[in-house]
């Protein structure tokens, strides 16, 4: 009955206009806090109020949702919609390239992501280039680019090494990168001044250490991405001030990797998961969370990793990833706890408009 | 090959006994018993075997579980009952169960049967998992290693999985036979293998290199599969015909024996006369030959066809991993002719396209509800986590498996089942899939899958309903022994 009322309302309300007020049993605010019987007031695609009681504007009916509401999930690393064109085969260094220019709002992966409750993704060039270009943050429905330039994507992993063109060795890669940073173009100036963070792809332990060393030497801000066992270097990473973006778990992953996440959390390193679609499906975010919870990870830490910390790592922590006044109204209606895998996702809203999730 | 088909072995043994009886019979009747001192006598041959008693299993602990709520099986719940476990079996389920002296008492909010993963590679080394020999008689039982990873076994048990159907050669066209194993930290494999050759597994369209095959190759793969079942059928027919021939032959031998016995005195006299004559003349004496001496020829033993025969006869199920609609349709059309074949589909990404046919032919589907991406390199590119729920809704028997790709996959099956529930599968149907449904599909429904008197004691003690995110498993009992306690969490 309630669900029906909601559907009717959503159908009646023109997208992005009109005011919407929803009360749920539990609001998961995205930063680890919850609000029982909280009310969301949404107007023009933004949260106008998130409170335990609200003075509703005239003519706005309060919709009761039996279940929970959470922010939309944020995938902090993704090649979604770049359609396999995330690498420039001929040029290993393309600092000026923008992933936003490869964004295809009609891509199937975006629809699948939205359907699973992922509302924001960080588009990144692939890890096959030493300097792949700049990341962008986009919404999975509506075609909105939230931020055109989020990071400079670097790769110090073996996948950036080539046979015929430099760099062909790890030391060659570092040398080439140092030379690039010495050249005072506007992009590197922004990076060195801390205006543009880096996202460094590294997988093996020595690659992580090399990345940290490079970032520290050049006083860079940003994240290490990939690194399934980053937690085993948690203290070093914490000291560097970098955060970590991990591949999600899909079932059958080694327990050592799951424990590595716990170590990151324990050391206070901010972390998030990047889906790297299309190789992983969007529900891997929730599965990863459930696997970490089973291993004993603090619940608040995993909520931050899925919502607020993920948004901050993407550089949009002040606009998405939380149910918070003034933030984009990206939210999910659940039958129960969003981290219980058996809970059902009943509706997805992006910028205050309901997303059609009926078909893949 | 692990072992020959029992049918073939029996017929071979029977043939041997017949031949022995025949020579003995004819010799006695022709008065040459002394020449056959080494004849095996059935009664003596049997005795030593009977004398060797099976070693008594170590006395298991007697356990009484006091359950706030006992899920006997899907849809049947009892409140405030106890379960008595003796010698690995559930011996009593009821309101009043008196604990025998020395019994261990366990209290729990919810008690249910242990989970079964019908699609796993647990306990099989990676070489055998990737085996590409394409032989039906290749047996997972031969590749099993119960010491492969004790920590992993504990992790899998902790997740509530007590039994797996594990499989070698999962990416080969013909994987070989699968084995059902109970997980137990102490018992050796001989005690934990519940069924050596529980099924035959094949794949269609699945490739080790991750590249799909072209449409013609896909169709010829289906034809090849059907051709193999036809071979198995023919092999089974040959065996049956041979049995008939043997019976006829036995009858003829008996008739001849009777005939000889009747004219025994004369025959003996004639024979002695002939013997004396040939001695006198210095000629070689030739024993009279009977045309019944020649037994019917047994069909050539072929271990591969023997397995295929068991599949064609429906003795063991055929589990086929297949995803695309075109191959699903072709497979269903090609197997319709085999009336006794018990087909089970695994993966079956596009199964909704053929759901009515699956319902009509009672073909179960093992769904792997994992968050796969839209990567076209996988056969599962169109996979939707809603599949299990949609199939169930359509009336198809749904099972859930961990997909047989990673050895630790089974550990995460309960989470994947929850994910399937979150995408529309009824909670009770998911529970059924992991317990009695899987047990029945593996022909172990009389031993596993529910908490009833006489069944094997594989149980979970939980602090809430099974397959709910907030629930923890407190105790796991496998084969009547407590193998996981709250301290193991």
Produce the secondary structure layout.
The complex is a heterodimer of chains A (360) and B (489).
Chain A: H1 2-12, E1 19-28, E2 34-36, E3 39-43, E4 46-51, E5 62-71, E6 73-78, H2 108-115, E7 118-123, E8 131-134, E9 136-139, E10 145-147, E11 152-155, H3 170-182, H4 186-192, E12 198-202, H5 205-217, E13 222-226, H6 234-240, E14 243-246, H7 255-267, E15 271-273, H8 284-294, H9 299-306, H10 308-313, E16 331-334, E17 345-350, E18 353-354
Chain B: H1 6-29, H2 42-51, E1 63-73, E2 76-86, E3 89-94, E4 104-113, E5 115-120, H3 126-129, H4 140-143, H5 150-158, E6 161-166, E7 174-182, H6 189-192, E8 193-204, H7 215-262, H8 264-281, H9 303-312, E9 318-322, H10 325-335, E10 343-347, H11 355-360, E11 365-367, H12 387-394, E12 398-400, H13 413-422, H14 427-441, E13 459-462, E14 473-478, E15 481-484
Parallel strand pairs in B: 1-4, 5-6, 8-9, 9-10, 10-11, 11-12
Antiparallel strand pairs in B: 1-2, 2-3, 4-13, 6-7, 7-8, 13-14, 14-15
Helix pairs in contact in B: 1-7, 7-9, 7-10, 13-14
Comma- or semicolon-separated keywords:
heterodimer; A: 360 residues; alpha/beta; 8-stranded mixed beta sheet; 6-stranded mixed beta sheet; B: 489 residues; 7-stranded mixed beta sheet; 37% helix; globular; disordered N terminus
Distance between the termini of chain A: 26 Å
The percent range for strand residues of chain A is 25-35%
Number of strands of chain B: 15
| Shape verdict of chain A | globular
* Rounded mean pLDDT score of chain B: 86
Beta-strand proportion of chain B: 15-25%
Radius of gyration computed on alpha carbons of chain A: 21 Å
Main sheet makeup of chain A: 8 strands, mixed
Rg of chain B (C-alpha, Å):
28 Å
Could you describe the largest sheet of chain B, including whether it forms a barrel?
8 strands, mixed
* Structural class by sheet pairing and helices of chain B: alpha/beta
Strand ordering within the main sheet of chain B:
5-6-7-8-9-10-11-12
Report helical residue fraction of chain B.
25-40%
Secondary-structure element pattern of chain A, one letter each? HEEEEEEHEEEEEHHEHEHEHEHHHEEE
**What oligomeric state is this?**
heterodimer
What is the helix tally of chain A? 10
